[in-house]
């Protein structure tokens, strides 16, 4: 019993992209992703030996979009529901969260908003957050062993913050050469 994005079969090692999630229940299963301003939440039930990871883009978005799993609350509910269907008990679920970097300085605050969202969601739902690595200015590669609840983070050495180029002010002035 392992799934990714609700339908695909999970290999021993699988990569999830934005808007996806995967669950697993074997000790040799590893789920991985790469994050910038996005957030990945690793959830697991240590008693049932089942866990999973999601990867979401923004805390919330328009309800008219088809890719609702790219938004925080939907991504969290999809993962939690998949875990409970796989035998996890909601009251035993624990969390580790990663991501939320500031990758586009001055352009967006999405990374910080994602971090604030995931921590408040976990607190509101009564899910203990055992560890977190949120914020900063570097991308991260996350590897999660869902049955064991173990996670590993590697900072991406060549990631850089992109500075927003200020837009020139619009005026009615004319410059003649």
TrEMBL record:
Primary gene name: cheD
Pfam families for this protein: CheD
Function in brief: Probably deamidates glutamine residues to glutamate on methyl-accepting chemotaxis receptors (MCPs), playing an important role in chemotaxis.
PANTHER family per record: CHEMORECEPTOR GLUTAMINE DEAMIDASE CHED-RELATED (PTHR35147:SF2)
The keyword Aminoacyl-tRNA synthetase is assigned to this record: no
Source organism (scientific name): Celeribacter baekdonensis B30
Protein name: Probable chemoreceptor glutamine deamidase CheD
Keywords: Chemotaxis, Hydrolase, Receptor
Catalytic reaction(s) noted: L-glutaminyl-[protein] + H2O = L-glutamyl-[protein] + NH4(+)
GO molecular function, one term: protein-glutamine glutaminase activity
Lineage per the UniProt record: Bacteria, Pseudomonadati, Pseudomonadota, Alphaproteobacteria, Rhodobacterales
Homology family: Belongs to the CheD family.
Gene Ontology process terms (BP): chemotaxis
Keyword presence, Hydrolase: yes
EC number(s) given by UniProt: 3.5.1.44
């Amino acid at each position: 019993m392992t799934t990714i994005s609700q339908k695909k079969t999970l290999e021993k090692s699988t990569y999830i992209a934005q808007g996806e999630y995967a669950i697993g229940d074997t000790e040799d299963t590893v789920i991985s992703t790469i994050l910038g301003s996005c957030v990945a939440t690793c959830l697991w039930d240590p008693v049932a030996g089942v866990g999973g990871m999601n990867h979401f883009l923004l805390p919330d978005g328009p309800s008219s979009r088809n890719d609702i799993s790219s938004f925080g609350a939907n991504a969290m509910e999809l993962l939690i529901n998949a875990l409970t269907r796989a035998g996890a008990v909601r009251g035993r679920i624990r969390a580790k969260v990663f991501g939320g970097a500031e990758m586009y300085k001055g352009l967006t605050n999405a990374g910080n908003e994602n971090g604030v969202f995931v921590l408040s969601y976990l607190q509101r739902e009564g899910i203990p957050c055992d560890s977190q690595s949120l914020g900063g200015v570097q991308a991260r590669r996350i590897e999660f062993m869902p049955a064991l609840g173990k996670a590993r983070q590697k900072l991406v050495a060549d990631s850089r913050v992109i500075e927003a180029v200020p837009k020139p002010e619009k005026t009615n002035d004319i410059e003649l050469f």
